[in-house]
Write a structure and sequence with these properties.
Layout (H helix, E strand, L loop, with lengths): L15 E6 L5 H11 L5 E2 L1 H4 L6 H10 L1 E8 L7 H16 L5 E7 L19 E3 L6 H36 L4 H8 L4 H22 L5 H37 L7
Parallel strand pairs: 1-2, 1-3, 3-4, 4-5
Helix pairs in contact: 5-6, 5-8, 7-8
Length: 260
Amino acid sequence: MADDPIIPEPSNTFEWDFFLAHAGPDLDIARTLKRALEPPAKAFLDDEDLVLGDDFDSELAEAQQSSLISIVIVSPHTEQAYYQREEIAAAIQMSRDDPHTHRVVPLFFNQDQIGSRQIPYGLRLKHSLRVAGSGDLTEAGKRLLETLSLMKHYEAKKADVVAGQRAAITKITGDGNTLAGIAEVTRFVRPLLKTLLILFVIAVGLLMASLLLPYFADVRALLATVLGSLCALLLASMLWLTARSFNYAQQIAQGRINGG
């Protein structure tokens, strides 16, 4: 129908599987790692995937934001690599915002030459990969591809949730089954809603019983006031949760947050 709301398609599509963050002197390591990942994966490497004339600062940021995993090559050169450190900070923030949408994997190269103070903030607690001085990245590539499969599983799950929330919003705001739509958008708080509903029914029952007390008018009035307030509070809580769930569902449907 012409009056049906238009729900934007989710905006966070992923063009790249991996984003390779490296210091300038570690470019050869990054190239070797890219070969270990492609195919089947798509790995962004600035030296090979930027086009002449690109504004590298904006293009690098966009490529990282459209990647599922940031691989940070940590070496003795990292401490002096300004742009890599910026990429590390961005990766850490994205993973904190939504760990199912972006993951950071440190890859330590020649770790025995890296002092503890040289490890960038946010990477120390990350489960990481370590490569010896021989530079063999075969095993590292296999483990990274396994991690990619896990991330894509999360994305597939998220896609199902997004589709369900989009359909539910259409039912509520269009000519569909409104009750079914409400049931879907409140799926994340359904146990709490059920508990509130049970308490509401009990409170209403007690309120009706208190009004039937044959004596003690003062006690009856007090009970009616308390139970009536409780009923109003429970009803308001259920309505508030439903409204919040609808707003949450809209954000999921637009891809602004991860429902997976």
